[in-house]
Amino acid sequence: xxxxxxxxxxxxxxxxxxxxxxxxxxxxxxxxxxxxxxxxxxxxxxxxxxxxxxxxxxxxxxxxxxxxxxxxxxxxxxxxxxxxxxxxxxxxxxxxxxxxxxxxxxxxxxxxxxxxxxxxxxxxxxxxxxxxxxxxxxxxxxxxxxxxxxxxxxxxxxxxxxxxxxxxxxxxxxxxxxxxxxxxxxxxxxxxxxxxxxxxxxxxxxxxxxxxxxxxxxxxxxxxxxxxxxxxxxxxxxxxxxxxxxxxxxxxxxxxxxxxxxxxxxxxxxxxxxxxxxxxxxxxxxxxxxxxxxxxxxxxxxxxxxxxxxxxxxxxxxxxxxxxxxxxxxxxxxxxxxxxxxxxxxxxxxxxxxxxxxxxxxxxxxxxxxxxxxxxxxxxxxxxxxxxxxxxxxxxxxxxxxxxxxxxxxxxxxxxxxxxxxxxxxxxxxxxxxxxxxxxxxxxxxxxxxxxxxxxxxxxxxxxxxxxxxxxxxxxxxxxxxxxxxxxxxxxxxxxxxxxxxxxxxxxxxxxxxxxxxxxxxxxxxxxxxxxxxxxxxxxxxxxxxxxxxxxxxxxxxxxxxxxxxxxxxxxxxxxxxxxxxxxxxxxxxxxxxxxxxxxxxxxxxxxxxxxxxxxxxxxxxxxxxxxxxxxxxxxxxxxxxxxxxxxxxxxxxxxxxxxxxxxxxxxxxx
Length: 671
What we know:
This protein is of the alpha+beta class. About 55% of the residues lie in helices and about 20% in strands. The chain is rod-shaped, with a radius of gyration of 59 Å.
């Protein structure tokens, strides 16, 4: 319906236009006469075709021709022309009117299209900029004003470089060169400058502007602000990266938990911690490194390698030898190892490849065989974590990466996993140690009870035997005297055993009391030796005292005499007949020193750290051979330590005798 009404309006307009032309022609007819009959109808045709299009224009042409012939060519006569000239004029008018209708239609459409294009350009959210081949701006839409801050009046006529940062001028030159060659520039992302100097991220498309002949006269640039898009993309990338990191972390945590569970299972599988550690070490490789060593320092300060492993089993022998060589040679060379540093600080030590290279370059003298072992292993990076028990470092679990295998440093996550692994190993070591100690205490308890029963029974049997013989009255006076002496001697021996047991009990309970006075250690040594001289003489052992001058200490004379007696009696007990025991008293470095040296059976090197332990002897058979409960040295050490001193055992080995050194603080002038 709307279309039909529009059609009526267009043809009605055409009719009115022609009618108006007729009226004007009538009005001017007195002056125009029969000349220019069709001239005033051309504006009507142009108006009808401009307003209504081709069809109303043709309608106006036909209507104008009819009106002209009817009223002006042959007024009020039948529609016929009568001569060739009039016919040609009419045909020319009709043809010209049709052409005008067509041209007006085209012009009208072009104008509409132009208006639409202009409206599109002006309303576009993208900046649309026209420029000539010299880069001079020829057009500038509203979006360009909003994007770059320049108004159209400010921008048109100026160079396009006003919006191009200095560092991107070559980019603009390349774009113009491509346009001059007739090519379209595909969309690309770049940055452009605003009027205020700030930069904006844009996506740009540049196309050549051509005439109808194909000649390139300029370029059309479309710039789109992509700041928001890039921000969204960055956020998306960040979210994706976080998701990837979270996923990777979740997988890593799962793997770590699985790994630690596997380690815990291995550590809890046995109470033989050296076997357990060996299994745990090989589980940790190559996850935590290419090789691993576990070094433990026992309660006597001895450091030893208890477990080791390498991802290449053939290199484990070299690793073991190198670790043992470093442990053995470090004290002599006075060069602390990484393990010593970890033990000293109680903290994890991480050595990067660069630091390791620097330290290796700083070593002045290295044994050739150590260099050879290092060449086999070729360490790249190191991390050592302390094995801590009750807040004290008792060992080091160390991992290393090599140049041939992993070839990279340890990360913070690696170090955290090593520390957790070491923590679990520490618990396993402590559990195994406690189990071993409990087992050892049980064994020592059984040995002690057997020894006590034997040692108490021996003098008790002699006492009972001689007592019964005396009670029977069957002994003569000489034998009676010998029986009384034997009873007394065995009673004293039994009393000494009971006193030793009571001393140990009092020491463990903390009930030993000291009567401290300034005393002469040399005199105490003489009294202690005098007490043991009869027993030594019975074994034909010579006991000598070297105490050239008094040595004053603050102590309990009775307890220190007990120390001397225990040490000397121990020396006499383990020295064969004809041997020699020497007691020397002197001072050194602010301490009083008492040396007891014998030519007896000596002490195995492996037993030296345990020689002062309660109920311990190097060989249980010694207890039977030499007698005693194995308490004398333990009591001596306890009494010396109560005086603020120390006692040390030395021996070159079995059959080479032994020396015990007691050190006590010298008495000051004020005491």
